[in-house]
Design goal:
Length: 264
């Protein structure tokens, strides 16, 4: 095979291995109030709870403040995120951790209850099932993150101009209500002022995606910050594959049409 033809084929293979990436910049809404940092806030006479989903892979950041004069306890075995009809408890036994690696799982569990974003692999130390918060004290907790944030959209979009660091780009914007949102979930927390949970109360709040802006431009160029922001991403080689097939077709035609001994 001629060196020129070998070079062309190598370039085409390189194109075939590239991936186009589509991003969805989603905004969450809730039945809760929102502060200046766009965190969701639940508050009563006993405690304050703040939810934030900002960060890589949409971690669920929970910040508690015990406003009472008594200790506050959270039972993670009886607390959960609920997506449609699928429930994921905040607490997962170390022997069950590998099950979260399933492709269709809506959550990833971190190593115990912490404020880090280190994902687990294999067995980990057994996380505490009940968290103790002293009187008049705060507690920041991160247990899991949300998976599969990219959704296939068939609704009619609005074409908008989006300002990025490098200038302006075109993007597609989709708006949703609570009733037709493609992502809807609830957070249910079981709490008590007694360590034996003889007297307990439930905090239940709901979240849904109210807006999605879809673009091929990555997060480094688009400002999408705040506790109510999540990002979905999907890789596809469809565009590159179509282009490569077209170039291959032209190459075959050129080879067929070339006179014998032309050196192609």
């Amino acid at each position: 095979m001629n060196r020129t033809l070998t070079t062309i084929l190598s370039i085409l293979v390189g194109f075939a291995m590239t991936r186009c990436v589509s991003y969805q910049y989603a905004t969450l809404s809730s039945n809760m109030d929102v502060n200046e940092a766009r965190e969701f806030i639940f508050e009563n006479d006993t405690l304050q709870i703040k939810y934030s989903f900002e960060g890589s892979n949409s971690p669920v950041h929970l910040t508690f403040f015990n406003k009472s004069e008594q200790a506050l306890f959270i039972d993670w075995r009886r607390s959960a995120l609920v997506f449609d009809d699928q429930s994921y408890t905040y607490w997962r036994d170390s022997y069950d951790i590998q099950a979260t690696g399933e492709v269709n799982s809506r959550v990833n569990y971190f190593n115990g209850i912490s404020t880090s974003s280190v994902a687990i692999s294999g067995n980990a130390e057994r996380a505490e099932t009940i968290t103790f918060i002293p009187p008049k004290s705060p507690k920041k907790i991160q247990i899991l993150s949300i998976n599969n944030n990219y959704v296939e959209l068939k609704d009619k979009s609005e074409r908008i101009g989006l300002k990025i660091k490098e200038g302006m780009i075109n993007a597609d914007r989709f708006n949703f209500t609570r009733e037709n949102s493609p992502i809807y979930f609830r957070s249910i927390l079981t709490l008590s002022l007694n360590p034996d949970f003889k007297s307990e109360f439930i905090s239940e709040n709901e979240f849904w995606v109210s807006e999605i802006i879809q673009s091929d431009t990555g997060p480094r160029s688009i400002h999408h910050k705040g506790g109510n922001k999540i990002i979905g991403r999907k890789e596809t080689g469809a565009g590159a594959t179509v282009g490569v097939l077209g170039l291959l077709g032209l190459l075959i035609v050129a080879i067929s049409a070339a006179p014998a001994g032309a050196g192609l």
